[in-house]
Amino acid sequence: MKYFVIGDEDTVLGFTLVGVFGMQATNEQQARRAWDKALEDSENGIIIITDEVADMIRSTVDAYLFSESFPLVVEIPSPHTKEGRTDLRTLVNQAIGVSL
């Protein structure tokens, strides 16, 4: 089982450092392309997506969440989210269980 991350540049870079492949998305078109890429590989068991990117394609993410059981979709706060900021190391630890 593999992980796939979709988010801003910092988030994707941080997850890449621990061996998680992903794609950066800064607009709706990039978010849709990254989402489709994540679903292409049946080995991807967990899709990690930042809240800002998920909001760009909210209807797609929500429709998937309520109709599919695999892969698991984990929505994490982006670094730009103002409430309850968490550092990137903590987010990686929480999302994939790797202690850095």
Q: Features of this protein?
A:
Rossmann fold, four-stranded parallel beta sheet, 44% helix, 22% strand, single chain, 100 residues, 4 strands
Helices and strands in order:
Blueprint: E1 2-7, H1 9-16, E2 21-24, H2 28-40, E3 44-50, H3 51-56, H4 58-65, E4 72-76, H5 88-96
Parallel strand pairs: 1-2, 1-3, 3-4
Give the number of DSSP strands. 4
Q: Distance between termini? A: 20 Å
* 3D shape: globular
The CATH architecture assignment turns out to be 3-Layer(aba) Sandwich
Q: How many distinct helices?
A: 5
CATH class equals Alpha Beta
Oligomer: single chain
In CATH terms, what is the fold-level topology? Rossmann fold
- The residue fraction in helices comes out at 40-55%
- Provide the number of structural domains: 1
Q: What average pLDDT do the residues reach?
A: 86
Structural class: alpha/beta
Annotated CATH homologous superfamily: ATPase, V1 complex, subunit F
Uncertain segments of ≥5 residues (pLDDT<50)? Answer: none
Main sheet makeup: 4 strands, parallel
Please trace the helix and strand order, writing H or E for each element: EHEHEHHEH
Q: What fraction of residues sit in β-strands?
A: 15-25%
Nearest-angstrom radius of gyration? Answer: 12 Å
Order of strands, widest sheet = 2-1-3-4
